[in-house]
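Appendix C: a fully annotated inverse folding record. The material below is reproduced so that readers can follow the format used throughout the book. The structure is listed first as tokens, followed by the designed sequence.
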């Protein structure tokens, strides 16, 4: 199972469980909370009625007062109220009054007058100076039929002469409880969903960040040149920096070992030639033969110097992860400058070199590296172009095309031309080069985001250079 999915599942379990317990707890508190609030209102109402009824109960004129008619009219009222979106079209209070013995004197429902209510807690406790309240089911088989009763004493000075009870069925509160629960459920589910979306986003971000680092490590292990993933900071940035440092250390060690082996192997041949010529020169020999051995020493020394310089340049490029500077470089002017540096060689071979790249074409790149790359390409082309041959630089879309008149490259060698230390014999001398020129060019193009392709065409060889940042300057 992927790390991101595991993180999300843990987060989902935690948020879901927390949300469930929170919703369950709050939901369980709604019903008693509403009933407690209602009971508090009933207490106030009962005590207000006790003060209003006290004179008639004391005088024994309760049955003669207009309270009977008032309570009957109260029971028939239709408030037509809308409370938080819920309609209320009838009153739900029941009010009854008892004397000091608990006998009902007045009942707004008109059903208990003359009955003995002295055993009901609301009456029994109130007549004894205590807080009297009870909750009784009107239908013993229906738990939703319970009715709250709250009593208040009717006083004559310090003497209790009766009590008044205000009752309210819990069923009348249910719509408000249901509405609160629905709203709470919707709000809670919304919060849980939002939390899960945040968790999914966090899981995606973390997985994506780790995946970028993983791809970086995989690319490094395969020898690809890739940029270090950018992070805003924190532990991921520290981890990425540590991975890059480890890569640098490991690559540096491997790079040194590889180049030490390569350099010692490539130096064997010219050193052996120089040593052999030097030993022969220590003895007597004709001047012509002596001059030939001196020439061998000079050529092999030049070969050693070229090999070392190109190895150093190649090592510099291969260790780079990006360009150190970028500037607009006019391609035509750069090529003319490189050709000018080889003017003597071009003139001696009577070569026909043309530059068909428009003067407005520019490359965005590092000037030093591009000049070195063009110099290597020109050196390679001059080595294989016969005296009096043609060499031409042109533009094809976003590609620079360098053509030189030469014999076709053998098929077996085409795929290995940019391989390090691979070289073909030069037609003029039969000797091979260092085999580092095209490899250096390819590395420079990769640093610039481009690529190199070499192939045979009619009459010669064509090198195509593709750069992503080629444009026409106005």
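Designed amino acids, in order:
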């Amino acid at each position: 199972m992927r790390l991101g999915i595991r993180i999300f599942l843990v987060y989902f379990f935690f948020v879901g469980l927390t949300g469930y317990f929170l919703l369950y707890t709050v939901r369980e508190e709604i019903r008693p909370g509403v009933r407690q609030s209602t009971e508090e209102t009933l207490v106030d109402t009962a005590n207000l009625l006790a003060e209003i009824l006290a004179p008639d109960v004391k005088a024994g004129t309760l049955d003669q007062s207009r309270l009977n008619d008032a309570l009957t009219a109260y029971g028939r009222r239709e408030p037509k109220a809308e409370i938080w979106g819920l309609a209320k079209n009838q009153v739900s209070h029941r009010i009854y009054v008892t004397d000091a013995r608990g006998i009902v004197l007045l009942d707004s429902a008109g059903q208990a007058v003359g009955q003995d209510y002295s055993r009901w807690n609301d009456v029994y406790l109130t007549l004894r100076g205590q807080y009297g309240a009870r909750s009784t089911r009107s239908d013993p088989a229906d738990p939703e039929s319970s009715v709250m009763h709250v009593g208040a004493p009717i006083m004559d000075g310090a003497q209790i002469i009766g009590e008044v009870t205000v009752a309210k069925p819990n069923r009348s509160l249910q719509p408000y409880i249901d509405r609160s629960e629905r709203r709470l459920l919707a709000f809670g589910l919304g919060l849980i969903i939002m939390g899960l979306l945040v968790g999914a986003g966090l899981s995606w971000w973390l997985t994506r960040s780790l995946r970028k680092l993983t791809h970086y490590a995989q690319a490094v292990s395969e020898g690809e040149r890739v940029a270090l993933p950018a992070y805003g900071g924190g532990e991921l940035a520290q981890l990425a920096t540590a991975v890059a440092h480890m890569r640098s250390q490991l690559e540096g060690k491997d790079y040194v070992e590889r180049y030490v082996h390569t350099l010692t192997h490539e130096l064997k041949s010219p050193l052996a030639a120089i040593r052999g010529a030097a030993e022969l020169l220590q003895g007597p020999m004709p001047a012509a033969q002596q001059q030939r051995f001196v020439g061998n020493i000079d050529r092999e020394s030049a070969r050693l110097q070229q090999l070392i310089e190109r190895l150093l340049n190649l090592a510099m490029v291969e260790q780079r992860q990006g360009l150190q500077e970028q500037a607009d470089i006019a391609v035509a002017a750069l090529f003319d400058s490189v050709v000018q540096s080889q003017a003597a060689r071009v003139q001696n071979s009577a070569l026909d070199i043309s530059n068909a790249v428009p003067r407005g074409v520019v490359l965005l790149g590092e000037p030093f590296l591009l000049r070195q790359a063009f110099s290597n390409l020109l050196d390679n082309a001059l080595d294989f172009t016969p005296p009096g041959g043609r060499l031409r630089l042109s533009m094809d879309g976003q590609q620079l095309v360098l053509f030189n008149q030469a014999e076709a490259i053998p098929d077996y060698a085409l795929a290995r031309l940019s391989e390090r230390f691979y070289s073909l014999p030069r037609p003029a001398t039969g000797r091979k080069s260092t085999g580092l020129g095209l490899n250096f060019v390819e590395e420079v193009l990769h640093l610039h985001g481009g690529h190199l392709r070499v192939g045979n065409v009619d009459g010669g060889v064509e090198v195509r250079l593709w750069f992503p940042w080629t444009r026409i300057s106005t």
